[in-house]
Design a protein that fits this description.
The structure holds two protein chains of two kinds. By secondary structure, chain A is mainly α. Helix content of chain A is 76%, strand content 0%. Chain A folds into two domains: 55 residues, no CATH class; 233 residues, MetI-like (MetI-like fold). Chain A contains 14 helices and no strands. By secondary structure, chain B is α/β, with parallel strands linked by helices. Chain B folds into two domains: 244 residues, Periplasmic binding protein-like II (D-Maltodextrin-Binding Protein, domain 2, 3-Layer(aba) Sandwich); 212 residues, 3-Layer(aba) Sandwich (D-Maltodextrin-Binding Protein, domain 2), CATH 3.40.190.10. Helices cover 41% and strands 13% of the residues of chain B. Chain B contains 20 helices and twelve strands. In chain B, the strands form three sheets. In chain B, strands 1, 2, 3, 6, 11 and 12 form a six-stranded mixed beta sheet that branches. In chain B, a hairpin with a 2-residue loop joins strand 4 and strand 5. In chain B, helix 3 crosses helix 16 and helix 19 packs antiparallel against helix 20. The chains are: A mainly alpha, B alpha/beta. At the A-B interface, helix 6 and helix 13 of A face helix 2, helix 5, helix 13 and helix 19 of B.
């Protein structure tokens, strides 16, 4: 009952705020509609851009500036111990052995996962297209994409569970390995660097479905006459794929790779759930979380956030440029 | 963070880790409504309000300051429901509404709320280390005089724990006992093993069980999400306390005795010979390194299957036992715990070191209604009221009526926690700064997984100290 009334209260509050906002906007638009002459255009521009700019400022620009600002600060954000430390947090990020390994490992993720997922997605897209019951196959491959990262990680954590040989096995991987004659499989999640690759498998498993669907659609959008013309010229199989199909969907492939790259760079849930960053598996975003929310070191955490941000910028730029090129092509 | 420990102990028994993770952020909190005094001419929080009669008579000293008080803590349902029941009569009689919110990411959220300028009225903080960090932000309010007076009912160590920069800040809430070894009285009786009362006997028994070939004597698990490693930190801490005494222990916690010092190295060697002994661990799971990947929740379950004889784990491990497990000291009972005997006999036969945990009720508001709640929650009357609601909760308040405890593990814990002869120390990791605590867990985890040597693990934590200082 109590919960219900507070929820209702909150809902009403939200409605009031949104309603008020809309009312103010309506009034301003009405006012702007009355303006004629020299100011008509500039005022219309400001009014139309205003809401978006304000939302961007509050939700993105100001927090980003504050994070950059905090990355030059020490551990504390408020209180008497706030101090300016210059570039010390960045120096730490690139000299501390643990953090340095974390950066390198994140780069490995960034190279391997998008590549493997995209290639696998493309292969599935080509193969499934010729199958009889392609809907079923597609649904099965796409299904992991719909599972949350945490859910997927929990499933795979069971797959990788270790029990000593001789005891009843819980982990699927150990059981399969032993059935295949490997009598003493290792404790998977402890074996570095194997454990990092095992965790990459989870993300590949999730992203392959996404890659398959997008690239499958692109393949099908290639006009039939193009394919037919190529066939008439004698191209088939690999040749057809490499010289006709792949060039025609290259922009889609780029978008898929970049989308998966961005997701990989931010990967946090898998590492957090499976090992918590232990056993040499830590990645940048998990380390960032751990600095800010576990060690309460806002300075170091913010520095890592800035590094992460700088790493995402080129990827986003490439995809925006790509998009523009297509729009004006 | 560690105190996901306790919270997890409960949630995980309900379901798998999934719950704990997926429930993240589900708890929202209305931090807007701070305490409002219904201006009945009340001038000071310490003056008693109106006189109440009947069933409400015991609450007279808290009356006259109605309002809403928000409490934020790491304790989740069903335990939080027991808390709410325990103060419902207080709410009825005083007109103070207590809004409790629990979150399994309490330790991450609280600093964010404090930094954002919208802290709860009261926070139930389970680590002295976090309490000190909150005090250092300048946001914590001093407790009222009555709470300070109530504090004298606890063994004096509790006051020391909640003292930062020479000032006492927060009264304890519950307490738990970690210096326990879980075992099966049934299994011990069937094999003719007896409960050891000295460290030497414990080691002899372990060797005897190992050579019997029936099972490995010990099992353990230190995996616990982001707090992975804490059970092994507790193993080391207890050895330090019981081998070198409280002075070395508190100097170690304060960073004055290094991990690389001869004492801590000696303690690590004892842990190594005990919990990293390949012949002794890890019953039901595998070799030594499997300790690193076994969750603390699963660690003791092989005891019930006859695959392992003993587990060193806190009183709250009881929540992990499958429902229907009989807990008690009788030879037919399936699970019980004995006191982990101290290592060093030269510290005297009366030396009873115990390590444990607890929570501190910390105020971020000095409104009269908030102070009334602080006074009530630090009174033995409230502790009695909480104990009556449900088992699995112990107070270290010496004025508490011990006959109210119904659960054998609660009785055992309370016996040690309120014994004036025992030497209580708070878990070392929780008393260290968060950055050191985190590195302590990571180093212990790396050491148990076999990827780091004993000296490298020690060096890793010492390095965290020097950058935290």
């Amino acid at each position: 009952m109590h919960l219900l009334t507070t929820s209702l209260d909150k809902l009403l509050g939200v409605l009031e705020a949104v309603g008020g906002f809309v009312a103010i906007l309506a009034f301003l638009f009405w006012l702007a509609g009355k303006v004629r002459g020299r100011f008509e255009k500039p005022i219309a521009n400001i009014l139309l851009l205003g809401p978006a700019v304000i939302l961007l400022l509050v939700g993105l620009v100001i927090p980003a500036i504050r994070t950059i600002f905090l990355s030059f600060r020490g551990q504390y954000v408020i209180g008497p111990d706030v101090k300016y430390v210059g570039l010390a947090n960045y120096k730490w990020a690139f000299t501390d052995p643990h953090t340095l390994h974390t950066l390198v490992r994140t780069a490995e993720w960034l190279v391997i996962v998008p590549l493997v997922s995209t290639v696998a997605g493309l292969v599935f897209a080509l193969l499934v297209d010729r199958m009889k019951y392609q809907v079923i196959a597609k649904s099965l491959i796409f299904m992991p994409t719909a599972i949350s990262f945490v859910g997927a990680s929990l499933i795979w954590k069971y797959v990788y569970q270790y029990r000593a040989p001789g005891l009843p096995q819980i982990g699927l991987l150990s059981e399969v390995a032993m059935k295949l004659g490997w009598s003493h499989p290792p404790n998977w999640l402890l074996s570095s660097p194997l454990n990092t690759f095992l965790m990459m498998v989870i993300l590949v498993w999730i992203e392959t479905g996404f890659a398959m669907v997008i690239m499958g659609a692109a393949l099908r959008s290639i006009p039939d006459d193009v394919i037919e013309a190529a066939r008439v010229d004698g191209a088939k199989g690999w040749r057809l794929f490499r010289s006709v199909q792949l060039p025609m969907i290259s922009s889609t492939v780029t978008v898929v790779i970049i989308t998966i790259m961005t997701a990989t760079l931010k990967i946090f849930d898998i590492v957090y759930t499976i090992t918590g960053g232990n056993f040499h598996t830590d990645v940048l975003s998990n380390e960032m979380y751990s600095q800010i929310f576990e060690e309460f070191n806002n300075g170091r955490g913010s520095a890592l956030a800035v590094i992460l941000f700088l790493a995402v910028v080129p990827l986003v730029t490439v995809s925006i440029l790509r998009l523009r090129k297509e729009r004006y092509a | 963070m560690a105190h996901k420990k306790r919270a997890l102990a409960v949630t995980a028994s309900v379901s798998a880790m999934a719950l704990a993770l997926s429930a993240c952020g589900s708890s929202s909190k209305s931090s807007s409504s701070s305490a409002t005094t219904a201006g009945s001419g009340a001038t000071s929080a310490t003056t008693s309000g109106a006189t109440l009669t009947g069933a409400c008579a015991p609450y007279s000293q808290y009356a006259g300051h109605p309002g809403t008080v928000t409490i934020f803590g790491s304790i989740l349902a069903p335990e939080s429901t027991s808390l709410e029941t325990s103060w419902s009569q207080f709410e009825k009689c005083t007109g103070i509404t207590i809004q409790y919110t629990g979150s399994n990411s309490f330790e991450s959220q609280l600093p964010v709320e404090v930094e954002g300028g919208s802290p709860p009225d009261l926070a139930v903080i389970p680590q002295p280390g976090l309490l000190a960090e909150m005090v250092n932000t300048g946001a914590v309010k001093k407790p009222p005089a009555q709470t300070v007076a109530n504090e004298n009912n606890w063994p004096s160590i509790w006051k020391t724990l909640a003292t930062v920069n020479g000032t006492f800040w927060a009264a304890p809430e519950s307490a738990n006992m970690k210096t326990l070894v879980w075992y099966s009285p049934q299994q011990f009786a069937a094999n003719g093993w007896t409960v050891p009362t000295t460290w030497q006997q414990l080691m002899t028994l372990s060797a005897q069980i190992a050579s019997s070939g029936k099972m490995k004597p010990w099992c353990g698990g230190i995996s616990s999400g982001t707090a992975t490693g804490w059970p092994s930190a507790d193993w080391l801490s207890q050895i330090v306390l019981s081998d070198f005494g409280p002075t070395v222990y508190s100097n170690w916690v304060a960073g004055k005795v290094k991990f690389s010092s001869p004492q801590i190295q000696a303690a690590m060697t004892i842990v190594k010979n005990w919990m990293q002994n390949p012949a002794w661990v890890n019953g039901g799971f595998g070799g030594v390194s499997s300790i690193a990947t076994t969750t603390f929740q699963d660690a003791g379950l092989p005891i019930l299957k006859g695959q392992c004889a003993m587990l060193q784990q806190a009183s709250f491990y009881e929540a992990q036992l499958p429902t229907g497990t009989t807990v008690g000291s009788a030879p037919t009972d399936q699970a019980y715990a004995f006191y982990l005997p101290p290592v060093n006999p030269s510290l005297g036969s009366n030396y009873t070191p115990i390590m444990g945990g607890g929570e501190f009720t910390t105020a971020f508001s000095s409104a009269p209604s908030v102070q009334m709640v602080q006074n009530y929650l630090s009174s033995p009357e409230w502790a009695d009221s909480r104990i009556k609601v449900a088992p699995g909760w112990v107070s270290a308040n010496t004025k508490v009526d011990k006959s109210l405890y119904t659960d054998p593990i609660d009785q055992l814990s309370a016996k040690y926690l309120s014994d004036p002869n025992s030497t209580f120390e708070f878990s070392a990791d929780d008393s260290m700064p968060a950055a050191v605590e985190n590195e302590f867990w990571k180093a212990m985890t790396a050491w148990f997984s076999g990827s780091e040597s004993q000296s490298a693990a020690a060096a890793q934590v010492d390095a965290a100290w020097s950058s935290a200082g």
